[in-house]
Amino acid sequence: MSNINEIITSRTSASNYDATRKLSKAEIAELVALATQAPSAFNLQNWKFIAVESDAAKASLLPLAYSQPKITDAAVTFIICGTLDPHVTLPAALKPTVDAGIITEETYQGWLDAVQNMYGNNPVMARDEAVRSASLAAMTLMLAAQGKGLVSCPMIGFDAAGVAAQLELPATEIPVMMITVGYAAPGNWAKKPRKAVDSVLSFL
Ligand SMILES: Cc1cc2nc3c(=O)[nH]c(=O)nc-3n(C[C@H](O)[C@H](O)[C@H](O)COP(=O)(O)O)c2cc1C
Question: What is this structure's pTM?
Fold first, then answer.
């Protein structure tokens, strides 16, 4: 599937997955490579991806996701984390943009200063940014999966603190969303209708 309108409109949240069909590590990495094409403020790229694909890891995750069977049946569950220290990680994240000649050294320094000021002493802002960035990456990943003939489901039905504890995530990484990805099995719901555009859109 390559038409963007078709990819967007055909995506649904799938609960039924063909448990016999796996994805290779290369296919999983390709999905993450596409997800990281998402934008982030200042190109912070304040996200991390954990791909849960082994039977043992799925079994550990299952109770933390309220035993939703798609954790076991989907080829992979991505735990998409946002990171809370963008002011620390930005210099390395942004350096390739300078090296490529896209922004100047002056702009680079200006952005580092701005990010330090915006997030350095503002944990609420840093957390908001982590959730924004991880969510944009999550949506991009779902569309990438759809384009490859896969199905997906975003999930907030999990114990985020429990996941962080079990995976021993650093305090700077928060699980924002899980996304199951795999091949569809029969029985998934059809596309759910949306509100009328004129009820959600206003023009100024
Ligand atoms: C942030 C978020 C969290 C969700 N959590 C779950 C979940 O834990 N389990 C689940 O089955 N579906 C979950 N969903 C899927 C929604 O129910 C679904 O997106 C919504 O009903 C619209 O259907 P559609 O995605 O098929 O268009 C979640 C969706 C979002 C965006």
Answer: 0.97
